[in-house]
Amino acid sequence: MSNTETALPPADTPAFGKRLVDLAIEYNFIVIFLAVVVIATSLSSNFLTFTNIANLFQQAAVVGVVAIGMTFVILTGNIDLSVGSVVALCGMLVAVLMSHGFDPFVAVAITALVGTACGAGMGAISALAQVPSFIVTLAGLVSFRGITYLMTDGVPVSGLPQGFASISSTMIPLLPGFSLSSMGLIFVVLCIIAGLVLRFTVFGEYVFATGGNPEAARLSGLPTRFMITAVFAVSGFMAALGGILLTSRLRIGQPTAAQGLELDAIAAVVLGGTSLFGGRGGVLGTFFAVMLLQVLRNIFNLLGLGSFYQMTVTGIIIVAAILLNRFIDHRKGRG
Amino acid sequence: MTTDVLTVQQVSKKFPPNIIALESASLNVRAGEVHCLLGANGAGKSTLLKIIAGAFRPTDGSLLLDGKPVDLHSPSQAARLGISMIYQELDLVPQLTVEQNLFLGHAPGRFGLINHRERRERAAAALKRVGAHFKPEARVETLSVANQQLTAIARSLTMDAKIIIMDEPSASLNETELESVFKVIRELVRQGVAILYVSHRLGELREIGDRVTVLRGGRTIETFDVKSTGDGALVEAIIGKQRSLIERKTREPVTGDVVLRVNRLRGPEGLDISGLDVRWGEVVGLTGLNGSGRTSFLKSLFGANRFDGDIKLEGKSFHPRHPAHAIRSGIGLVPENRKTEGLVLHAPIYKNATLPSMRESWLTRHSLQKQKTAPVLKSLSTKYGRPEQAVVQLSGGNQQKVVLAKWIINGARVLLLDEPSRGLDIGAKADLYNLVDRLAREGAAVIVASSELDELYAACDTIWVFHEGRNIGKYDPSVADRDAILRATILGENHVQH
Description:
The complex is a heterodimer of chains A (335) and B (498).
Chain A: H1 3-7, H2 16-26, H3 28-43, H4 50-75, H5 83-99, H6 104-128, H7 133-152, H8 162-169, E1 171-175, E2 178-181, H9 182-200, H10 202-212, H11 214-219, H12 224-250, H13 261-271, H14 283-303, H15 307-331
Chain B: E1 4-15, E2 19-30, E3 34-38, H1 45-52, E4 60-65, E5 68-70, H2 75-80, E6 83-86, H3 98-102, E7 109-110, E8 113-114, H4 116-129, H5 145-158, E9 163-167, H6 175-190, E10 194-198, H7 202-208, E11 211-216, E12 219-225, H8 231-239, E13 258-266, E14 272-279, E15 283-287, H9 294-301, E16 308-313, E17 316-317, H10 323-328, E18 331-334, H11 338-342, H12 349-354, H13 366-379, H14 396-409, E19 414-418, H15 426-441, E20 445-449, H16 453-459, E21 462-467, E22 470-475, H17 482-491
Parallel strand pairs in B: 3-10, 3-11, 6-9, 9-10, 15-20, 15-21, 18-19, 19-20
Antiparallel strand pairs in B: 1-2, 1-4, 4-5, 7-8, 11-12, 13-14, 13-16, 16-17, 21-22
């Protein structure tokens, strides 16, 4: 080999080690997740058991489903603060409908429709009247919670049909000795569907383009206003599902449920590497971030540390993850 | 006795890698005069102003203030030394009051507390000097543009400015408003303040200026005494005598049918276009000063601006209300600013290139999108690594080709190019116009707006001069005199020769 050849590594096939590092940086949330899992396993022998894993999925499902919808919204550079209230509203609505004698299937369908309409309405106001979604959905957060209380004057609804509980808690065997509750499975399946939509549909492509550069998207003929409305409709639909799952698991319609859920969902999306400015990120990151936050909670429970510790450390981890992402952006010259 | 407040000596400014914005420009401004700065687009006016205001540091040369050399590091330092810059877009905070704006950053008081009474008194005094009839406690956003202009001037006075630089103050003012600003300028000059006034309107210069320095191609050509110099000599100095650098190719006469007929188009900011036709295979150039309505016109045709009018596309009435309508009718726009309007910068090349044409199906087929992108980018001789690369990593010229590829892939037959060569080097410019030529030969109809007449002169079949929102003259560059076209862009309607 001549000197000149050794001096210049071929540009088209970067070294395997460097590519691995690039991948680890790109998917840093997976690396962090795995690291936390290793720590959890070493701290408690109960952690890596099938029962505990199934529990993790079951507990993460409601926030997780909502966070999927939130990912769509944040990818367009918007934010949806109303999801916690929509979860409560829909959780109550489905309970009230069934207590009035509606068939569970009909009740679920109506509730999903109402949730979608709530989201689409806020999205349309934001897109057509050019109001920041922060404000519109803040109003939604307050009003939808109010409506939730108004439905039964703040009284929980119980006595739901037995079959309704099976939506969330049917155990589905996946491996010998390992079964996942249906709500955990619904979360995973929705993640996969959302991932496919973002990757393989024109709709998904338009979500990224609208968030990446709204003006360029508009001048490329994209229906940007419709896209804003649509992502909020998705978020509303997901929040409705979250509410249905929550009521199904609690076996009671609870109007005070899901307070502050929007912040958990936003934290998960951002922790998963989706940019708050829009255009960059995805649902894979959201999935791992939701699970990461759940594992953290799990560790604290296994160690017998109270929720005050959980809250403190969760906040610190979110800040650390955001700083890491800023650093990566900077390194890649994305300012 | 008149003394020089500001002397600019042989100042040069180079931007890496090889752009020379200024080359030994010299200028001297005397106390108590209105010194005008005149030059075509790209002559180096803005660069020179920014150097004087401390926003840029010169590569070479020196500045003297009251005869003493100064080295300006920042605009705030320049302001402290008495150099005050009033930008065209008036850097006032609209939500704050007039007095808050006047003393923003240098409010009277101590220990972080503001002495409101002193501020009110000094604000009132400054406003009185500029003859303002509004109150210091008025919020800036409630004022007319002319009164905002006065506020900006008053702000300079609160900083004891010796020299006030005004960058095209007339751009947003009507005639009576401008007259009131002129009155203030005359009063300030009488008090001994020097004004450096930038404009490309000769009429204003006659009314307000004492002396005028002409810039061309980054060099100061000459300083004239306004009263004793005729329009002819000034225009000569602005446009120069040298021939175009880009060779004009021999173009075959256009024989295609009329594809786009703009009988009448009235839009925002006084846009009023009539009788403009484009044929298949024709390259129509739009030239004019900044703000002459070129961009507005193209955006209207593309459905991105609201307008009234009567437009025929292939004989049928055409009134796009949304870019999507225009795109479906086979129109494509390469917008003025490719970074903010043309591209999703962090998205891959192939996704950008297929963004408008994706609507054809529900599912994305990434491999098909790449297949569609590759040959078009190749035919545009775009240099890129992989199609998955983020478009931001490409050079300006190659980015522009990706924008162009969007419309070619989408099958657009009418292309609207708004300042397509901005920010490109000479080679990339020539490359771009070769492409335009080829697309036209292949039958497309092309409208190119550019402030660089030389480019249009070399590449177009027809050139329209836009002036203050109207299309005032149509020229055939194969016979028309380049200087006649330039004269029309600067002087307007009455100087159109047919």
